[in-house]
Amino acid sequence: MIGMIVSGHGHFATGMTSSVELIAGHPDHYVPVDFEKNHSTDDLKKNLESALEQLKDCESILILTDLLGGSPFKVSVELSVAHPEKEIRVIAGTNLGMIVEGNLVRQFSESVDALADQLVQTGHDQTMKYEFVEREEVEIEDGI
């Protein structure tokens, strides 16, 4: 099984997890890690290490973070390098669709790399700008 950790600034992780649970039920082998205002990066590192320990029975781990270059992303990357014995991959720019899909399909993924690639594509596919296009009204006459 591929374990999942979601981390981000403020209550990003627990907020996203609340939404995932509403949509798809409680996820197994999944740990949210918030990086709150009063946390240092050392606190974040300890919390992410605790999450890794909770997922120690997983073959590999995918960490989904909010911002590229933010502390949750950087600390996750550092931990992935520090633990070469685990296949840990890190994604930045996570949205809710990516987490929901990852939770639903990860048991069928051939590898953590394939899952990471799939979720990055999902993130791209689910990001768009809605544009309203006004259509000219056409008058329809009564009858056949």
UniProtKB/TrEMBL annotation:
This is PTS system fructose IIA component. Keywords: Cytoplasm, Kinase, Phosphotransferase system, Sugar transport, Transferase, Transport. CDD domains: PTS_IIA_man (cd00006). NCBIfam families: AgaF. InterPro entries: Bacterial_PTS_sugar_comp, PTS_EIIA_man-typ, PTS_EIIA_man-typ_sf, PTS_IIA_man. The keyword Secreted does not apply. Its main location: cytoplasm. PROSITE patterns: PTS_EIIA_TYPE_4. One of its GO terms (molecular function) is kinase activity. One of its GO terms (cellular component) is membrane. It comes from Bulleidia extructa W1219. Residues 1-127 form the PTS EIIA type-4 domain. It is found in: Cytoplasm. Pfam families: EIIA-man. The keyword Transport applies. GO terms for biological process: phosphoenolpyruvate-dependent sugar phosphotransferase system. Gene3D superfamilies: Phosphotransferase system, mannose-type IIA component (3.40.50.510).
